[in-house]
Amino acid sequence: MAIYPGMFPYTRMRRMRRDDFSRRLMRENVLTANDLIWPVFVMEGENQREAIASMPGVERISIDLLVKEAREAFDLGIPAIAIFPVTPQEAKTDKAEEAWNPDGLAQRAVRAVKAAVPALGVITDVALDPFTSHGQDGLMDENGYILNDETVSALTKQALSHAEAGADVVAPSDMMDGRIGEIRDVLEQHGHLNTRILAYSAKYASSFYGPFRDAVGSAANLKGGNKYSYQMDPANSDEALWEVALDLQEGADMVMIKPGMPYLDIVRRIKEEFKAPTYVYHVSGEYAMLKAAGMNGWINEKACVLEALLGMKRAGADGILTYYAKQVAEWLKHG
Ligand code: PBG
């Protein structure tokens, strides 16, 4: 066989893979605690914890326990948490008024965490599903259709109440049209110039959200059974770029793709096209799959989780929302 530069055996890809030192030297991506955002479920009461059946290892916790957990997350180097309230059934209404109650669970949780751990970033979810009696993210007309503009004005009230409670970042996850611009306007008008908006820009109508809906108790209520009239069709990719373009124009500081693993092509396209801070949500169903397989001894949980999250970094994500955040930060710190 003739020998040409650039060809085997001049080039042997395995040379660099032979030793740990050269593998480390050519490593392109790394996962650190700085990449993690920890979603947490908060409930009423004191010293309360509740397991979530479909998410072993994840709990709903009362605000006092959340404050402790938040401090631990901060000490592990996690930059931010994302708070999801579990609204008591009796506080849910058709119009979701509880969403902008200044003394609502989310607002109280934000104040408590910011008072105790001021340097930890606090992100809130802006959407109506934990507060509507029907479990949809917006307000519903008599035919069950989710009304866009009426919902957007409710969301601006909710986002403002979060900013007033001290949230550093508001994260609209509702997929209504025009909500980023309206929220940005209201924040500016009230002097919240530095409240960041993390837009769930490319949020797909995914079946991987099942365990989350159990966790916040919106699954049983979910009238209509799906969110197809506002969340994106999993078949689409160009549409995700269009959504991101609009959200950035309207004033988003950060954009998100959701779910994670089945949508990393979208993460890559969005990062390449816009070069904006880009996040990905490793959602509840993805957590449940890794956890279940790990608990059964079918996969090495730690290795698979770290690989899944590294894959998100490699795809172009600047950060990852994951229920594994605290666990991963511990693994990274203590091995
Ligand atoms: C609702 C919301 C959902 C998630 C975050 N915010 C569920 C949904 O849209 O039905 C899902 C998160 C997860 O599955 O981990 N606004």
TrEMBL record:
<protein>
    <recommendedName>
        <fullName>Delta-aminolevulinic acid dehydratase</fullName>
        <ecNumber>4.2.1.24</ecNumber>
    </recommendedName>
</protein>
<dbReference type="Pfam" id="PF00490">
    <property type="entry name" value="ALAD"/>
</dbReference>
<comment type="pathway">
    <text>Porphyrin-containing compound metabolism; protoporphyrin-IX biosynthesis; coproporphyrinogen-III from 5-aminolevulinate: step 1/4.</text>
</comment>
<comment type="subunit">
    <text>Homooctamer.</text>
</comment>
<keyword id="KW-0456">Lyase</keyword>
<comment type="similarity">
    <text>Belongs to the ALAD family.</text>
</comment>
<keyword id="KW-0627">Porphyrin biosynthesis</keyword>
<dbReference type="GO" id="GO:0004655">
    <property type="term" value="F:porphobilinogen synthase activity"/>
</dbReference>
<dbReference type="InterPro" id="IPR030656">
    <property type="entry name" value="ALAD_AS"/>
</dbReference>
<dbReference type="InterPro" id="IPR001731">
    <property type="entry name" value="ALAD"/>
</dbReference>
<keyword id="KW-0350">Heme biosynthesis</keyword>
<dbReference type="InterPro" id="IPR013785">
    <property type="entry name" value="Aldolase_TIM"/>
</dbReference>
